[in-house]
Design goal:
Jelly Rolls, single chain, 7-stranded antiparallel sheet, 212 residues, 4-stranded antiparallel sheet, alpha+beta
């Protein structure tokens, strides 16, 4: 048999960046925000974590340094990873607190291109983020070894001060927090400015014209 060629198609890019500065003041600010519990929208349960009442946190001057870092990181992701000429900007931004006994349900981020999570308080004793790919859940094979081709979940440990950027369509969740500390993060979404798509390919959306 000739040597087989294995091709990996359509990988999901996940970028981890480390914030270079102290963020203790920003952490205290986030801790003291007003929060709503039991999840949001159709996802509501006493076991779910809580989100900030304010969902445009990057409009606040107290988080300007974190905003600038996240904005520059999104621009770098778009330019160097996606290699797109479209300009992405951060839309909504909110904070999450997952206390002992709480979790974050499995979800994606609609109406967003790239999503981000900045970890204010996280460590190896707190639950990591868990990604799940769009997989045929109706068919289960017995696998001898787990790898990138047969696994449908991926656990990614993160630390305080790290920023995670990933496609907004990628399903993710946080398992129950069994630690004693709160798991604290900021999440945000992005979208493109001006227009999206191609006139030649008949996929063009002039976003500027949609504003009265």
């Amino acid at each position: 048999m000739a040597n087989p060629e294995l091709i990996q198609l359509f990988p999901n890019p996940i970028l981890i960046l480390k914030y270079p500065n102290d963020f203790s003041e920003e952490l205290e600010f986030v801790k003291n925000l007003q929060y709503r519990g039991k999840g949001i929208g159709e996802y509501q349960s006493d076991s779910l974590n809580r989100q900030s009442m304010e969902t445009f946190l990057f409009d606040l001057p107290e988080l300007k340094r974190i905003k600038d870092f996240c904005t520059a990181s999104v621009e770098m992701f778009a330019d160097q990873v996606l290699q797109t000429s479209d300009k992405l900007f951060i839309t909504q931004c909110w904070s999450n607190i997952t206390r002992k006994g709480e979790r974050h349900h499995e979800h994606t981020h609609p109406n967003s291109i790239i999503s981000g999570v900045f970890y204010f308080q996280n460590n190896s004793k707190l639950p990591p983020i868990r990604f799940r790919r769009d997989f045929n859940k109706e068919l289960t094979l017995n696998h001898k070894v787990k790898n990138n081709f047969n696994s449908d979940t991926y656990i990614l440990p993160t630390e305080s001060g790290e920023l995670l950027l990933f496609p907004s369509t990628l399903e993710h969740s946080v398992l129950e927090n069994k630690g004693e500390e709160d798991r604290i993060s900021i999440s945000f979404n992005t979208f493109t400015k001006g227009s999206i798509g191609s006139i030649e390919d008949l996929t063009y959306i002039p976003i500027d014209r949609c504003i009265e």
